[in-house]
Amino acid sequence: MVYFINDIITGALIGLLYSLVAMGFVVIYRASKVFNFAQGELVIIGGFIVWFTTMQAGLSLWLSIPLSLVLAGLVGYAIERIFLTKLIGESVFSMVMVTVGLLILLRGLVLLVFGPAVRPFPIIFPLKPLFLGDMLIPMNLLIGGIITIVAAVGLSWFFNRTRSGLRMTAVAEDHVVASSMGISVKGSIAVAWVLGAILSTIGAMIFLSGKSLTFLASDIGFAALPVALFAGLESIGGLILAGIIIGIAQSLTTNYLDPLIGGSLGSVVPYIIMLAILLIRPTGLFGWRTIERV
Amino acid sequence: MALLLLAPYLVSSRIIAILNMMMISAVIAVGLQICTGYAGQINLGQAAFMGVGAYTASILASKTGLTFLLTIPLAGLSAALFGFLFGLTAARIKGFYLALTTIAAQFLFHFAVLNLPSTWLGGSNGITVPPAELFGQRFVSESSQFYLNFAVTAIMVAGAFGIVRSRFGRAFVAVRDDDVAAGIMGINVAATKANAFLIGAFYAGVGGALWAYLIRFVGVDQFTLFHSIFFVAMIIVGGMGSIVGALIGVFIIRIIQEIIATVGPNIADSVSFLGGDIVFAGMNVVLGGVIALFMILEPKGLMHRWNILKSSYRIWPFPY
């Protein structure tokens, strides 16, 4: 029974990590209507920035973490300036295709610059797990979960209550209408990408803390995809619930079903949930229902 | 065309090998063109559909010994069925949500191959494929395979020209341009989208079967998301919504890939820390850059540029 509860808690915490990465998707979508397929690549770039500032430049954690976040924001801004600003006014299809191009472009660049070598990642959160009776909870995931919830509450307040957040929401609704209302589409998309890159870097810190870093870690971007869809692409608060549900489902499958069937069903459970969600309720739990006009 | 038929006698076997790859890619890219370029459905799972075809053909060929005259169409059909399943989601969802189900197709395909009992699909070891055989003649050499690929590619491309001019093709274009309006005009939008996936996946499956007979080995690494994106790059470069455009795109992207694969190892000697990954990395950088550049500078592809040239030649010396 204790193990069962422990599995549920660990699963929920991993789910919250997925939520944080998925928040990158949602923030970019919420402010620019672009679905960023290259999210996992942003995570890995964030990871390499953190690795570079701590392990390579030898800065202390207190200095390197803020510096990494700033650098990640700059990378996000640069990507937006180089690739996406020029596409404002083009169809959303082109923008999505550009992020597909970015997915392989960034993957290749990371490989070219850093190579395929496995690197130690700095220990940002204490390695010692938290003991609750017989239960054992990984510290990085616990702190990460708290960060995720704080970020979700903060961002959902920003997007739903503040004036600039609502402006960005208008951009997500329709680029042309938003810009004719005097809202800067360019600025909105820039903010979205900076925020998206920063969130991905925080995600990388939680995910990789004390582990090893290779370019393969970007797979977490695709693991977070189902969470974003389950919540509905426009809902930031909903990510928490969706992340927890998917995390628990995955953890229980891995621990109880996989030994029975002798496979790794746990790794595809999120995608199966995603397909089911797309078929049953394509807008997700809390997404907007859109009305089409001709 | 006639010159192409004589190609095995005219050029070296290296070029024949490249031509073989181009023709197989052409079949798959033309399928993707129908699905994405004509029907407007973003498809990031074309390599998975190709994989389904390749596995079907290789299992049929190695276990039941069927002739390739049967395995290639059957491979196409099984891939089409797989693609149709994902196209069915179009009944409920549209736009890039659909692209996400095709990514799910990619992951589910990998999962199925790697986790089903290895006696079924070979697991991570892959499957060895016996060569195609007709009247006791085995298609082993590059040039004999060239004729096999050429025949199949010619049939498939000719079929594609027919499809896009038929009522299905016109329905695809209508759905691409505005699916709500198309629905009001009496087109069954969901069925049309599912059909687009069915046809696109059928082409991918046939291409996959040809691939299996050419390489004589299938493994799950040959059909990743990256390969799907390479096919997307082909139709973006060539131009969306044009069969000839898809062929041009295949030609250009395959040549770029060939150059990287040739030059890459030489560079790898001088920057040794990258090792063998430089080809993969370089391929990704160049093709990712090509996709982004074309989307920004020439979103309609080279075919569009060619059409402009053609019409300005026709009306010369008047501007329009």
Automatic annotation (TrEMBL), chain A:
Alphabetically sorted, this entry's keywords are: Amino-acid transport, Cell membrane, Membrane, Transmembrane, Transmembrane helix, Transport
Q: How does it sit in the membrane?
A: Multi-pass membrane protein
Q: Which Pfam families does its entry note?
A: BPD_transp_2
Q: Does the keyword Membrane apply?
A: yes
Spell out the subcellular localization from the entry: Cell membrane
Q: Name one GO biological process term.
A: amino acid transport
Chief location category = membrane
Alphabetized InterPro entries for the sequence: ABC_transp_permease, BCAA_transport_permease
One example of the protein's molecular function in GO is:
transmembrane transporter activity
Q: Which residues cross the membrane?
A: 12-29, 34-53, 59-79, 91-115, 135-159, 189-208, 220-248, 260-280
Q: Name one GO cellular component term.
A: plasma membrane
Q: Which family does it belong to?
A: Belongs to the binding-protein-dependent transport system permease family. LivHM subfamily.
**What protein name is recorded for this chain?**
Branched-chain amino acid ABC transporter permease
Automatic annotation (TrEMBL), chain B:
UniProt keyword terms in alphabetical order? Cell membrane, Membrane, Transmembrane, Transmembrane helix
Q: What membrane topology does this protein have?
A: Multi-pass membrane protein
TM ranges are 6-32, 44-62, 68-88, 95-114, 146-164, 194-214, 226-253, 274-297
Q: Does the keyword Transmembrane apply?
A: yes
Q: Which domain of life is it from?
A: Bacteria
Task: Name the chain's protein.
Answer: Branched-chain amino acid ABC transporter permease
Native species of this protein?
Answer: Maritimibacter dapengensis
Give the matching InterPro entries. ABC_transp_permease, LivM-like
**Pfam families from the entry?**
BPD_transp_2
Subcellular location per the Swiss-Prot or TrEMBL entry: Cell membrane
- Keyword Ion transport (UniProt): no
